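TICKET: design request
STATUS: open
ATTACHED STRUCTURE:
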């Protein structure tokens, strides 16, 4: 019964959607969610992740998780972010930087923890330098499951990575070498390989979209170091 209650509690929707990684972004201290998220969802996320929640849009858009990437060292925002939005985020992180990159969905094209980041193969050299300096990580270009949207195809904590089951052996080797962590395969929200779209995770805990099964939850806990 206690395991069942834990599974239910870990499931959260944002604005009625199980794609919580699309709408929010977190580190160990702060969770950024779009304006208008229900108080119930905010309270549950605060509890699960042990964070302070701030409400912001990015460039006026609610898909905050797609347009931001962050770790405990800093935050990167799409160059489309408004000045007042960036100023709010700057109050809650060590450093916040606009990334002047033609691809604006930074949460989709960067997968990072506090030590490493894998990024879309077409990200510019200038952007890689900014990512390295802002997040304080080792950065390499690469793919997961053959796609450059590595931030949607994977989730990383300081203890492990959960990635799309369609990943290749070569890609697993790259991730293990870069992050120096075990890589596990899994899905989210009843079979979606885009695990980054349905998970929010940090050192304190995790939340998943409401369509996530009990088996998928077990994979999340094992892969990201919660067991």
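STATUS: resolved
RESOLUTION: sequence designed for all positions
ATTACHED SEQUENCE:
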């Amino acid at each position: 019964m206690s395991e069942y209650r834990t599974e239910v509690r870990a499931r959260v929707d944002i604005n009625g959607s199980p794609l919580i990684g699309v709408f929010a972004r977190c580190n160990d201290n702060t969770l950024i969610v779009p304006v208008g998220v229900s108080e119930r969802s905010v309270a549950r996320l605060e509890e699960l992740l042990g964070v302070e929640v701030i409400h912001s849009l990015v460039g006026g858009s609610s898909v905050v998780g797609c347009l931001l990437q962050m770790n405990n060292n800093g935050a990167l925002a799409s160059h489309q972010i408004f000045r007042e939005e960036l100023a709010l985020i700057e109050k809650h992180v060590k450093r916040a930087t606009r990334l002047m990159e033609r691809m604006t969905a930074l949460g989709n094209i960067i997968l990072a923890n506090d030590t490493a980041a894998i990024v879309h193969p077409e990200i510019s050299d200038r952007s890689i330098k900014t990512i390295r300096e802002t997040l304080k990580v080792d950065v390499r270009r690469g793919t997961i499951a053959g796609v450059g949207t590595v931030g949607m195809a994977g989730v990383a904590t300081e203890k492990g990575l959960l990635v799309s089951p369609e990943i290749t052996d070569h890609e697993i080797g790259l991730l293990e070498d870069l992050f120096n962590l075990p890589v596990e395969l899994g899905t989210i929200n009843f079979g979606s390989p885009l695990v980054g779209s349905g998970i929010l995770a940090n050192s304190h805990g995790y939340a998943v979209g409401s369509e996530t099964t009990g088996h998928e939850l077990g994979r999340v806990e094992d892969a990201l170091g919660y067991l």
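CLOSING REMARK: The chain has ten helices and 14 strands. The first helix runs from residue 2 to 10.
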